[in-house]
Sequence to fold (267 residues):
Amino acid sequence: MRRIDGVRVFWALLAVVALISCSSSRKDSGVIYDEDLTRAAEEPLVNERAQSAPSDEDEVLRLLGLSSDTSTKTKNESQASAANLQEMEARISEMQKEISDKNVEVANLKAELAESERRVSAMQVQETVEPTTTSRPATTTVSVSGGFSDRYQAALQLYETRNYNQALQVFDQLLQSGGDPDLLDNCQYWKGECYYGLQQYHQAIIEFEKVFAFKGSNKVADAQLKLGLCHQKLGNLEKARAEFETLLSNYPDSDYVAQARRYLQNL
Fold:
């Protein structure tokens, strides 16, 4: 009886050991299985997350409120703007060169104009310093006989027929002779008229101004009027105005007052 109980106990213990071993084996197998299932379930999620995770560049663009398409468009626009800027800079450079060339051309023209004005001014000064008395063409020497008055009338006749050079010769002879003081101032005045007729206005001014050296001359108002006309012919309008105003001031009773006023109105 005791032997049977001992056998039963042995088999019971053996069954317990086997049960414990089987349970342990199942537990280990279950842990491995669960981990594999968890890993297998998580792998698609990780892959999906990796695929859907934005790159650093996309993240920066997202933070700036831009997209990759907007960035590409912006880059293209920037490239186009850079090209347009280069084209504009090239055009500006070309225009600056054209302006520089024009400035050089204008400077050359100004230099030529200044040189021309200088030459004209020099010619005018030369005419003033060296009057054209010597430019009178050579003429046959005129010999007029008779007394002073006869020769004076002959000279006037030459002037009226526009033989100015011959008339000048006779008036010069009469002035050098020193006869008839009452007609010497007239001879001097008519010399001025001869040069005026020859359009030698500088020399005419010189001759008319000599008339004022004759005291009591009846030709001073005439000479004053002609001085204004000579300066007007030469383009010296301010000087002409001054001469006409002098006539009005110094010779208010002259027969030339009306003429002087008319000339002043036309200046």
In short: The radius of gyration is 63 Å. Confidence is low (pLDDT under 50) at residues 27-34, 124-138. The chain has three domains: 2-53, 67-130, 148-266. The CA atoms of residues 6 and 12 lie 10 Å apart.
